[in-house]
Amino acid sequence: MPKNINFRGHSRALTRRMNRKNTLAITGVAALGAAAITLSTVPGGGQTTTSEAAASGHVAYSSEPIKDVKAGVTGQLATAGQKVASIEAKQKAADEATAKKAEAEKKAAADKAEQERADQQAASRSTQRVEVKQVSAKTYTDNLDGWIRQALDIMKAKGIPGSYHGLHKNIMRESSGNPKAINLWDINARNGIPSKGLLQVIPPTFKAYHVEGTSWDIYDPVANITAAANYAADRYGTIDNVNSAY
What secondary structure letter does DSSP report for 239? Predict the structure, then answer.
């Protein structure tokens, strides 16, 4: 029997054929698997759709439509949020305006009430001052000191100059402080117009220099003093300048 010297080469050729068969078998199995996957995605109507993705063994999914939908929803939400924010801002502004108006009205009412209280207090104080003035009206004693002081207050109000000392010294020289004193022996008496009163004033002079608000009785102490002082102011500047018969 001849010796097979090419056994190794034959063996390698056989091995290659077997490997090729195995490769074809594996390829067939892969194709059958892809077909099975394609058949599993057939729509409910029973129709089979062959796609390029199935033929190639790859399935591709596009994310673009999902992005567009997401962008649209996000935009709508943003717009709605802006509208809500705008409404809230307007409402807040309206509430603030209402609050400011109410505060202003409250302040105006408080100011008015305060002014009314101040006016009432001022009126009350004025009334009280009048009442106090009436109650505390100045009084004078019914004697020479009181007559002189009352005459001085009237003279001051009328702008007639004179002092307590000037009046007192002339009164004591003329009548010794007797309001009913009368001179019946001098020239005036002989002429029928005797001097009368504290400062020995003749009737024509008393009438001419009578001070408004005092009595028209020439023997009235205050009326006599003020008329004499008014005459002395006109003739001598003030009763203080008179040191003798005048």
Answer: G
Q: What pTM does this model have?
A: 0.47
208-to-186, 212, 231, 242 alpha-carbon distances in Å:
21, 11, 9, 19
**How many other CB atoms sit within 10 Å of the CB of residue 226?**
28
Residue 139 · residue 149 · CB < 8 Å = no
Counting beta carbons within 10 angstroms of the beta carbon of residue 205, is it exposed (0 to 12), middle (13 to 18) or buried (19 or more)? buried
What digits encode the pLDDT tens for the residues 169-217? 999 999 999 999 999 999 999 999 999 999 999 999 999 999 999 999 9
CATH no. for 144-241:
1.10.530.10
For the record, the structure tokens of 58 come out as 């790859």
Measure the CA angle with vertex 180, ends 176 and 184; round to 5°. Answer: 85
Q: Is 71 exposed, middle or buried, given 0-12, 13-18 or 19+ CB atoms closer than 10 A? A: exposed
In the three-class reduction of DSSP (H, G, I as helix; E, B as strand; rest coil), residue 180 is classed as: coil
